[in-house]
Description:
mainly alpha, 12 helices
Amino acid sequence: MAWHTVLGVEADLEALLSPPHLVLMTAGILMLGTPVRSAGPRRGSLTRALDHVPAIVSVFSLTAVAAFFLEYLSPFLDAPVAGPDPDRQAPGVGEYLVTTVLLVVPVLYAWTRLGRVPPGTIVAVAVAAAVPVGIFNDFGLPGGQLWVLPGAVAAELIVWWAGRRARLVPLVAGLAVPALIWPPHIAGVAAAIGLGWTVELWGGTIVLCALTGASLGGLLIRVPDDRSR
């Protein structure tokens, strides 16, 4: 209140970057993340699918809040692949990279706390990142926002299959989420308004995002201790 009294009330991008609002965002994330954090110490007792629902809702909420504060960097909002302007291509690639981190990190965080990626987590994260942006903007680009859901379902299946070798789950999840979510998004944009990027540019962006996700997941792979062999 002191900030707004002295400096006034912000609007648009200024409101998202206002320091008091970022402090509120941080507090909200800490509160909303409590269910998934608290599930960690008792994950051995979470044996039923319904036991993971609070953690999944928590991850969904965390992603939704982060997506709201990063809306100005969301390709679900302005679909940079549709723009032919060369000056917008590099910032557009940046949008896909930032949103890849937004999609991958909550999934990896759930794995670190629960020792697994509960079914429905990836779909929940994809919905939280893409759908609210569409709701806030009257679904101006439904193809680019809703077509990601089949890709998220496919990523769920791949990560479930990878669960047979639990140590590789974070690597597989980090790779599969962007590799399977961005192609249907781009296809949805192409079907709705067409593409302005060349195949080299949008194809390379998908590969770059997949490598970024794989790198994040690879950091969590546990290497067996030689002394335990």
